[in-house]
Amino acid sequence: MEHVDLLVIGAGQSGLSTAAVAARTGWSRPLVLEAGGDTAGAWPSYYDSLTLFSPARYSALPGHPFPGDPDRYPTRDEVADYLRTVAKSLDADIRTHAPVTAVRPTSGDAFTVETGNGEQWSARAVVAASGAFTHPHSPDLPGRRSYAGRQLHSADYRSPVDFEGARVLVVGAGNSAIQIAADLAPLARVTLASRAPVRWMAQRVLGRDIHWWTRYTGLDIAPIRRQLARLPVSVLDDGTYRNALEKGGVDRREMFNALTEEGVIWADGTRETVDAVIWATGYRHRYPYLTGTPALDDRHRPLQRLGVSTTVPGLGYVGIEFQRGFASNSLRGAARDAKYVLTRLRRAAPRGRRPPSATSPADQEPSHEPPQRPRGRHRSDDVPPRRRGTDHLPGRDRRG
């Protein structure tokens, strides 16, 4: 059985971010196992019109600047191509078509990792960086199984062409719901259905993108993840999407109570025939390869604090929503979380069996303007563990 010091599960944005900072945190060349055949994560499967809500300059991995205008908002295909390019340049052993089926803690502070191909590895540390956008979630409302119209999750939506002239409900109030509704508006009759109204947030404030301000004020890394998780979903917009919805006649209604064979029953009791329902209701993280280990609770959620397992030494996570702060589970935040997790895992390695340091742990990721101001004790490890999930918030999307 081959032995590696660090094994990363997943070669999407979280896995590549982890591999990118491995050497900076003292780990030797990591092994990255990807179930699919691509190193772009779920990005190639998203809808055609998807763009990041954060500028390119804030969406790059350490040491790998995004090509082109740093102030533009990259498209789906640009992000996928960027991740593929990064994967080729990393000092990491990345293996595709290697679906991890089991991670088993063993004696001697190590893990045995198995794939569906029958391969096995022994690893000193394992980082689970998969599953953030591969398990779509949608509510099981009354009548849903009897509805004869078209139903699909936003994960399966591609373009408005197939919905021309149709009556479509888009369920959700987050970024994906708004982008899809705006995309459909010129060709279909669209209504947004959500439990809470859409809350708009200005993309630019005082002439600068909001991400400049979150970095300048420290909100990106501030230890307020529990408070952030309780906030309602907000949609960043410079006016483009709001205008598109108004121009296309898209309205918003309180969430319907049930579905019928022909359509829906609204909260006021009225019935309406609809042709299609698109569920932009987010995703739920899944770690099937950890089933049967002490890593998960009885609801299959990871027992972790700030991305470090509290029950299995040597196990970490990258890509969990609000894992450490506002930018977790996004391109701009995954590398910071990975750096923290890998540093903690390395410090916790048994004395005399720590991985060799490839570079100085003091190496820092490239900084973006503006420089950080001192903020006192804004330390993520001062935050108590979050006990309340965010799956109840429809449409929450942390990709960009």
From TrEMBL:
Cited SUPFAM superfamilies: FAD/NAD(P)-binding domain
The segments labelled Disordered in the record are: 345-400
What keywords are annotated for this sequence in UniProt? Answer: Oxidoreductase
Please list the GO terms describing molecular function: flavin adenine dinucleotide binding; monooxygenase activity
Q: Does the keyword Plastid apply?
A: no
For the keyword DNA repair, the answer is no
Q: Where is the composition biased (Basic residues)?
A: 345-354
Q: Where is the composition biased (Basic and acidic residues)?
A: 379-400
Domain of life of the source: Bacteria
Query: What protein is this chain from?
Result: Putative flavoprotein involved in K+ transport
Instruction: Look up and give the organism this protein is from.
Output: Streptomyces zhaozhouensis
Organism classification: Bacteria, Bacillati, Actinomycetota, Actinomycetes, Kitasatosporales
